[in-house]
Design a protein that fits this description.
Blueprint: H1 11-15, E1 21-29, E2 34-42, E3 56-62, E4 70-72, E5 86-91, E6 97-103, E7 109-115, E8 126-135, E9 142-152, E10 160-161, E11 165-171, E12 179-182, E13 185-186, E14 196-200, H2 206-211, E15 212-214, E16 220-223, E17 234-243, E18 250-260, E19 268-273, E20 289-294, E21 317-318, E22 322-328, E23 335-339, E24 342-343, E25 353-358, H3 362-367, E26 368-370, E27 376-379, E28 390-399, E29 406-416, E30 424-427, E31 437-440, E32 449-452, E33 454-456, E34 467-473, E35 479-481, E36 487-490, E37 501-509, E38 517-526, H4 530-536, H5 550-592, H6 603-609, E39 617-622, E40 631-632, E41 648-649, E42 656-661
Parallel strand pairs: 3-9, 11-18, 22-29, 31-38
Antiparallel strand pairs: 1-2, 4-7, 5-8, 6-7, 8-9, 10-13, 12-16, 14-17, 15-16, 17-18, 19-20, 21-24, 23-27, 25-28, 26-27, 28-29, 30-33, 32-36, 34-37, 35-36, 37-38, 39-42, 40-41
């Protein structure tokens, strides 16, 4: 079971810059069968020196550059990782420059020269510095580069980028030549000093230069090589803009390019045979082979998908358990009034829903229809609020599974009222030949109610609220009408010189929109006696109204029912009083004499009727005929003069057994 190294291991050759560097393997153990996965991590040692791209570097810096200006230097590369990789830079001592060591996103280091003291070409035309790169090994390994700085006359305006950092995202399979980003800088100088040339910064790694190309004139950064997400996920590219002056001005910017993973790696299936050949009598469940699947892609691109088939295990669920719909009456037939919505988390036919109306009321089936596919409820005919105000139905929502599941939703449709009925006059009746004349005596004071206009409106609510106004009158100053009651009053006291006959036209209006109205004509006679009125109306034959006795019959029926109820209650009270007095007399007579003559009240009847007082107890054996029985009276539980006596009278076989409670202080006589 020992794991041995078969050849020399070079971590940099196996993994490059990836850390940690690991090799995976699987071990199969038989008897019993077990599978183990293992990983060997290759640890780095400090066996590589940092290396600069070249042994010398030359910079041209104008003497007009102000203190604080920064100049990137070429970076050294160290293939080791971790603490053994490049850790820092050191600069030889000098009066003008300091070294600023920065860290990239991937953890690598790079150095920049920072001008601390302005240069003077007349004082010193060139400078020689030494840049040292150190790793973190023990002892540390190092590399050196000679930096030669030429101090030139000033080009007093350097290029300026419109932003210091650019960001872009590209897919790893992006073809060569695709535009990644476009950088832009400007220079206020004119002529060659204002012409800008774009290039990679001196410390840009060679790998980046192989993958990306920069147009020196336009600043367009394009794909040059083949990107690989599994190798590098983010590139940090440093670019510069330099003018064409004798002493060129330089500006720097950074472009962050994020590589987006694509599913460009097929899963790799590894089959490990553990039992071959397989005998024909192998038991079910015997392991034949082990399979492992790997995919180098990331996130969802690296999953292995297993399809799960759907089972119809979810009942359709409506967004509401019940719906209330309000529809104005006199609607257009065929309009949609409601959409019943439901969801089913199942898939395919198991989630296909159909909608039907359960026909509990046949009227609903003639008035309403529902679309089976989308649950839209339609109204087939025009509704009338005065005919029916509310309709109730049950909508069934069913899925399309082989064993369908369903749910029911209640729907209530309320018909709202419209003002489509004018007021109807009940009194005086407008459609009869009879003339209704009301009589008022001369001298009647103001405020006396003469008659009343009675009307109804078949509509509801505000649409049925009727107002009454006096539209026309023989004498407008004599009568007034209640706005909401329809009662006609005298507006002033009647005088002898007032006209004997008055005709009033009352206008009735509802409060709907639009307003509907009707009118009623009322005739009023001013006379002392009804005889005078009849003399004036002898030429008018009264019409027989079959409804004029309805009120009389109703009042008579109420009186008769009340009288019958009163007589019944009185008789019941007398009967109860009579029964109570009989029981009281029986109780008094039993205390005054030992024997008494039989009367209409029998002891057994008293027991059955509940009138026997509850302070005495007997056991009585009776036949089905309570008046001819064998009576066995046992000793009472309370004290009595005859408490020790027991007598038996036999006239027949014992029948029923009763327990009797009584107040008598003696035993019943044979006659009783």
């Amino acid at each position: 079971g020992a794991l041995l190294v078969s050849e020399r291991i070079d971590r940099e050759e196996l993994c490059g810059t990836l850390s940690p560097c690991s090799l995976s393997f699987e071990i199969v153990v038989e008897n019993p069968l077990e599978l183990y996965s293992g990983t060997v991590e290759i640890q780095d040692i400090n066996d590589n020196d940092p290396v600069f791209p070249s042994s010398q570097a030359r910079l041209e810096i104008s003497e007009s550059v102000a203190a604080g200006a920064r100049f990137p230097l070429e970076s050294a590369q160290d293939p080791d990782v971790g603490i053994n990789s490049l850790q820092t830079y050191q600069l030889s001592a000098n009066p003008h420059f300091a070294l600023d060591v920065q860290t990239r996103v991937d953890g690598s280091k790079y150095a920049e020269l920072v001008l601390e003291k302005e240069l003077d070409r007349e004082e010193q035309r060139e400078l020689h510095l030494v840049l040292t790169a150190l790793d973190g090994g023990s002892p540390p390994r190092s590399a050196h580069v000679q930096i030669h700085i030429d101090v030139v006359d000033a080009n007093d305006n350097a290029p300026v980028f419109n932003q210091s950092t650019y960001k872009a995202s590209v897919r790893e399979n992006t073809p060569s030549g695709t535009l990644v980003a476009r950088i832009s800088a400007y220079d206020l100088d004119e002529g060659p000093n204002g012409d800008i040339v774009y290039s990679f910064s001196s410390h840009t790694p060679a790998k980046v230069r192989e993958l990306f190309a920069l147009d020196s004139a336009t600043g367009e950064l394009r794909i040059k090589g083949q990107l690989d997400y599994e190798e590098t996920k983010l590139y940090e590219i440093y670019l510069q803009a330099k003018d064409r002056g004798a002493v060129p001005g330089v500006a720097h910017c950074k472009v962050l390019v994020e590589v987006v993973d694509v599913n460009d790696n097929t899963p790799e299936v590894t089959v490990t045979s553990v039992y071959s050949p397989v005998p024909e009598d192998a038991a079910p469940g015997t392991v034949v082979a082990l399979l492992s699947v790997t995919d180098l892609d990331s996130h969802d691109n690296g999953l292995i998908l297993v399809q799960v088939s759907d089972v119809n295990d979810n009942v359709p669920k409506s967004s509401q358990d019940s719906y209330d719909v309000y529809v104005p009456e006199n609607n257009l037939p065929g309009i949609p009034i409601l959409n019943v919505s439901a969801t089913d988390p199942d898939l395919g036919r198991n989630a296909h829903l159909s909608y039907t109306i359960l026909q509990a009321d046949p009227v609903v089936g003639h008035l309403f229809s529902i679309n089976r596919e989308n649950g839209t409820l339609y109204l087939l005919t025009s509704l009338d609020h005065e005919d029916q105000v509310e309709f109730r139905m049950m909508v069934q929502i069913q899925d399309g599974g082989s064993l369908p599941l369903s749910t029911n939703v209640s729907v209530s449709v309320f018909v709202t009222d419209l003002n489509d009925n004018a007021p109807t006059v009940l009194y005086p009746h407008p459609n009869t030949t009879a003339t209704y004349t009301d009589v008022v005596a001369p001298g009647t004071p103001a405020g006396h109610m003469v008659t009343k206009v009675v009307a109804v409106d078949a509509d509801a609510g505000y649409n049925a609220w009727i107002s009454y106004t006096l539209l026309q009158a023989t004498d407008p100053s004599l009568f007034s009408v209640g706005l909401h009651s329809g009662e006609i009053f005298t507006a002033r006291q009647l005088r002898e010189d007032d006209a004997p006959q008055h005709t009033l036209v009352i206008l009735l209006k509802d409060h709907g929109e639009p307003v509907l109205s009707a009118s009623a004509t009322v005739s009023i006679s001013v006379a002392e006696m009804v005889k005078e009125v009849l003399t004036d109306l002898t030429d008018v034959a009264p019409a027989n109204d079959p409804r004029r006795h309805v009120t009389f019959y109703l009042i008579l029926a109420v009186i008769l029912v009340s009288a019958a109820f009163f007589i019944t209650m009185l008789s019941l009270g007398i009967f109860k009083c009579y029964k109570w007095r009989q029981s009281k007399e029986l109780f008094n007579s039993s205390r005054s004499t030992l024997y008494r003559t039989p009367g209409p009240f029998h002891h057994i009847d008293a027991v059955r009727g509940g009138f026997t007082p509850p302070n005495f107890y007997h056991q009585v054996y009776l036949t089905t005929d309570s008046r001819q029985s064998d009576l066995l009276c046992k000793k009472p539980f309370t004290s009595s003069p005859l408490g020790s006596r027991q007598s038996t009278i036999r006239n027949g076989e014992p029948g029923l057994y009763h327990q009797i409670v009584g107040t008598a202080s003696r035993l019943p006589t044979p006659a009783e």
